[in-house]
Amino acid sequence: MSASPLSPVANGLKVAIRLTPKASRDRVDGVVAEADGGAVLKVSVTAVPEDGKANAALIALLSKQWKVPKSSLDIVHGATDRRKVILITGDAAALAARLEQWMARLT
Prior knowledge:
Number of domains: 1
Number of helices: 2
Distance between the termini: 11 Å
Oligomer: single chain
CATH superfamily: YggU-like
Structural class: alpha+beta
Strand content: 35-45%
Helix content: 25-40%
CATH topology: Conserved Hypothetical Protein Mth637, Chain: A
Largest sheet: 6 strands, mixed
Shape: globular
Radius of gyration: 13 Å
Number of strands: 6
Mean pLDDT: 93
CATH architecture: 2-Layer Sandwich
CATH class: Alpha Beta
């Protein structure tokens, strides 16, 4: 797959996510293609989409998976939508290299 859910920005790295709440378990299902040709990281959490519970579960899961502090992750787009964009604050090149390796292990 040539498309990547990662896009570097001035203050870090944006990651496109498609979140499935109320799943059987918390997991990252890998990178999937969207109908518009873009790519998203497909993530499932057990939390319900009420009062930000699913978003909090998503941040906690990704923080643990990516080994970054929760405070460096922020949902910048789609807080109430299944399709979200998360900003990881930090060195975009270093973060991109780490996450590319991490995503390669998912397949």
